[in-house]
Amino acid sequence: MDFHLFSSNSLMEKPKRLRAALLSSPGLGHLIPVIELSKRLVADHGFEVTVFVLPSQASGAEAEIIESAVTPKLLDVVELPPPDLLAAGLSPDAAVVTRLLVTMREARPAFRSALAAMEAQPDVLIVDLFGTDHLCIGEELGIPKYVYVPSNAWFLALFIYSPTLDKKVTGEYVDQTEPLEIPGCKPVRPEDVVDPMLDRSDQQYCEYVQQAVKIPMGDGILLNVWEDLQAETLAALRNEEFLGWVADGPVYTVGPLIRPVRPAGLGKELLEWLNKQPSESVLFVSFGSGGTMSAEQLVELAWGLELSRQRFVWVLRKPTTKSLDGSFFDAGKVGGREELLTFLPEEFAVRTQEVGLILPLWGPQVDILSHPSVGGFLSHCGWNSTLESIVNGVPMIAWPLYAEQRLNATLLTEEIGVAIRPKELPSKKIVGREEIEKLVRTILVEKEGHMMRARVKELKSSAEKALIKEGTSYESLSKMKEDCKMRIHQIKKAH
Question: Is 166 in the active site?
Answer without folding.
Answer: no
